[in-house]
Amino acid sequence: DLIYVLNGPNLNLLGTREPAIYGADTLDDIAGMLEDRARDLDLEIDLRQSNHEGHLVDWLHEAQARGAKAVLLNAGAFTHTSIALHDAIKAIRTPVIEVHLSNPHTREDFRHVSFVGRAAKGTVAGFGATSYMLALDAAARF
Ligand code: DQA
């Protein structure tokens, strides 16, 4: 089964971006860890990153069209702003798991609202790169 792992704005800079908050792992490191775990779970990973909201909307539609089993979505700051992502998640039948490296609830007030979380099946946040691994394990059980 196929799992989409979609990453939003600024996540291309992981590794050097505010490492005290987001950790030292790069997105490539996370991709490698996910691929290792996916092999054990007999899953295939399609991991992408974009700084553009519309790309993420298109990829959510594509995940359904390709029959993906689930989407792991770290929408970055679009989490807190994007009705378009909220609506795209609602528009597809493919289950979406919201993922965050940090725990937005312990941070600035503007991170306390999640339009992604309102539409997602569930959320994993606050465990750094491990958030993605836990979300993958959840998706494997769908
Ligand atoms: C993030 C949390 C968001 O608030 C922030 O805008 C990000 C990263 C996380 O993974 O912790 O870009 O999604």
Automatic annotation (TrEMBL):
Binding positions (substrate): 74, 80, 87, 101-102, 111
InterPro entries xref list: DHquinase_II, DHquinase_II_CS, DHquinase_II_sf
Single GO molecular function: 3-dehydroquinate dehydratase activity
Keywords of this entry: Amino-acid biosynthesis, Aromatic amino acid biosynthesis, Lyase
The protein's annotated pathway: Metabolic intermediate biosynthesis; chorismate biosynthesis; chorismate from D-erythrose 4-phosphate and phosphoenolpyruvate: step 3/7
Catalytic reactions on record: 3-dehydroquinate = 3-dehydroshikimate + H2O
Site (Transition state stabilizer): 17
E.C. code: 4.2.1.10
Record bears the keyword DNA repair: no
Active site positions: 22 (proton acceptor), 100 (proton donor)
Cited PROSITE patterns: DEHYDROQUINASE_II
Description of how the protein assembles with itself and partners: Homododecamer.
PANTHER family: CATABOLIC 3-DEHYDROQUINASE (PTHR21272)
Xref: HAMAP family: AroQ (MF_00169)
Protein function: Catalyzes a trans-dehydration via an enolate intermediate.
Entry similarity comment: Belongs to the type-II 3-dehydroquinase family.
Name used for this protein in its record: 3-dehydroquinate dehydratase
Gene giving rise to this polypeptide: aroQ
